[in-house]
Amino acid sequence: MHYTLPTQQILHAGQYADSTIIQANLAKLREDHAIGMLVIELVPDETFIAGLDTYQSIGVEMSGGGFTVQPPFWNRNDLNTYGGTYSSIKAEKYAELNGVTDDMWRESNTITRYAYGKRTYEWFRNNPTYDNGVLVVFKGTINYE
Description:
Elements: E1 3-4, E2 23-24, H1 26-32, E3 35-41, E4 57-63, H2 72-76, H3 79-83, H4 88-98, H5 110-126, E5 130-131, E6 134-135
Antiparallel strand pairs: 1-2, 3-4, 5-6
C-alpha cells in the first residue's frame, strides 16, 4: 500500500475548500519506484451534493522513483554551484543525506550548505552511481578536495 486515507472524512457543507490527510508510505513508494497521480473525487449520492464540478476532485502527485521535476530547494540553495547540473538522482540523495523534507527548504548559512554539499559529494565519490550508464558526480564549481 503506497498511501492510506482516514476511514472517515468530515467535509464541511457550503465550503469550496476543505482538507483531508493522506499518509504516504514513503518506504514502499521508494521500494516500488512508484510514480503516479492519486485523484480524490467527491461522488454525489442521495444524501450528498458535491457542488460545482470544478471543485469535485483534486490530484496529488506521488513519486517514489525520485523527483519528477526539479524541486525549488535546488535553486533556492544554489546547488548548481555545489553539485553541478541538476539531476533527480543528485537531488534525491542530497535530500536524504541532509534531512531535507520540504521542497521549499532553504539553508541561509553558507558554511552549512558547503558541509551538506561536501557530504553529498563524498557519498557519490564513495558509492559510484550511474544514470543510464553515466557516472553521477556531485560537483559544481566548488572544489571539495
